[in-house]
Amino acid sequence: MNHRVMIALIVPCYNEEERINLDAFVQGDSMGIEFYFVDDGSKDRTAAIIEEASKKYPFIHLIKLAQNCGKAEAVRQGMIEVQKKVSFDDDSWIGFWDADLATPLSEVPKMIQYANHYRHVDSVWCSRVYRLGADVRRSPLRHYLGRGFATLVGELLHVKSYDTQCGAKLFKPSTIQTAFSEKFIGKWVFDVEILLRLKNFTVIEYPVTEWRDVPGSKVKISREIFRVLWEILKIRKKYIKN
Length: 242
Prior knowledge:
35% of the residues lie in helices and 19% in strands. The protein is an alpha/beta fold.
């Protein structure tokens, strides 16, 4: 009998009633994935829909936040809550995944297989790299803003990641306390903080084979560019020693 790796995915949700495809998540059970949906104070029926599904499927769980805190805090709360409730071994993975499934769940086993090519890996981050053999469908605006963001983060924060912002990441249980115990400075740009916190761990990037923009994203990068810059400067002040 093959050993079944335990995978727990935190899925932050805010007003996802019209977009969330629970049927796709249900299919994730065949990969041994447990889903912990964190409802971030939604004002629609998101929590009710997930709660109904949790009664039918034992691998679907709902964590409900009393008020909207933003993606960063929803992910952090989810990580902390799951680590309290679940016993993990060294073969386990805990991750977070965007509710819109822009990165399909079929990438999860590929990420783990990719990590096995290394001697030791503490965290695997999906990265949207345009290349032959990959089906990455991203709007030109988001692509170029993403490249600009990565360049800025590389220069100001000395982070050499190609794509910190893809919403699909896996972590070994041993990293959770270091990465998530303290609140984040950034409300959305928290992935960079995680990377800075995990400077003594081995983090690798996995180039996705499939990714696509899903309409209805809550993040309007072009409108929030100044807030993002301000967050980066605050992160630099805290983490980068002159």
